[in-house]
Write a structure and sequence with these properties.
three-stranded mixed β-sheet; alpha+beta; binds ligand 3IX; six-stranded antiparallel β-sheet; 9 strands; Thioestr_dom; 2 domains; single chain; about 25% strand; hydrolase; about 230 residues; Thiol Ester Dehydrase, Chain A
């Protein structure tokens, strides 16, 4: 089943949901950080666990059958709220608020805390890869050619300290369905990880985009999601 879902939902309703679920996910991020760092006594841990399990049960009383997917409304606004990097409703996502321009540039400033650690005090290399995969994909999408990651190559130049970071990406070149993008993660001292990747508009999406373009002749198809 496709997880690209068309929903009849107004922009106002999307904003209402963002204001409801965004802070919920943020509270759970705080919880993850607290679970890693707490030093309260054993009885407090047991009580906290019981409380968390009760809340989880409450939330599961009514839920989506599978993952959130990517949902579009009639205005073409896309919501990737379960996305592991930018998902508004995903507590695992830092989340990144990605800025774009139509020349195919994407950038974001963000904070990575204790939940993203690999080597002591440093960001896990897989987390840097996760973020750069998204950022390069966002650049490809911003330039009008979204795609699935085909190949992603990273060079870890030095450890990335946990804390305040910035990521940037831009399109290097486009060859038909293949968009080549480059980018990096940096701390205040400069670049820590560099990435290059190719993003490929899948055959199934080419067909879907052509169909969509035929249906809404003047409206460009959606190419990026928040
Ligand atoms: C309403 C429709 C909306 C459409 C939206 C479409 C996509 C949206 C996706 C993202 C949008 C934007 C923002 C999102 C931001 C973040 C991105 C995160 C992305 C991910 O987290 S994504 C998960 C990891 N990713 C995968 O899960 C890919 C699994 N894989 C496949 O889904 C297929 O494998 C695919 C699609 C890659 C190709 O399949 P295909 O059948 O369409 O095309 P085909 O095989 O014919 O290749 C065509 C040309 O690409 C070359 N090529 C093929 N594979 C290559 C590879 N791996 N590396 C380098 N080049 C490759 C060939 O050599 C040929 O090149 P040439 O023509 O020059 O010979």
């Amino acid at each position: 089943m496709s997880r690209y879902v068309q929903e009849d939902v107004s922009s106002e309703e999307i904003e209402r949901q963002r204001a409801l679920y965004g802070p919920l996910a943020q509270s759970v991020r705080e919880l993850a950080d607290a679970v890693i760092r707490t030093e309260v006594d054993d009885a407090e841990i047991a009580a906290a666990r019981a409380g968390i399990e009760a809340i989880t049960e409450r939330l599961r009383e009514r839920q989506i059958a599978g993952s959130y997917g990517v949902r579009f409304n009639a205005a073409g606004e896309g919501r990737a709220w379960g996305n592991a990097v930018v998902g508004t409703r995903n507590p695992v996502a830092p989340p990144l608020k990605v800025h774009h321009d139509s020349s195919g540039r994407a950038w974001a400033e963000f904070h990575l805390g204790a939940a993203y650690e690999g080597p002591p005090g440093l960001v896990h290399g897989g987390v840097s890869a996760l973020i750069l995969d998204q950022m390069l994909g966002e650049a490809a999408g911003a330039g009008g050619k979204p795609g699935m990651t085909g190949t992603l190559t990273l060079r870890y130049r030095r450890g990335t300290p946990l804390g305040e970071l910035r990521a940037e990406a831009h399109i290097d070149r486009v060859e038909g369905v293949k968009t080549y993008a480059v980018g990096h993660v940096a701390d205040a001292e400069g670049v820590t990880v560099e990435a290059e990747g190719v993003f490929i508009l899948p055959k199934w999406a080419c067909r879907a985009l052509e169909k969509q373009a035929r249906e809404q002749q003047d409206e460009p198809p959606p190419t990026r999601f928040e």
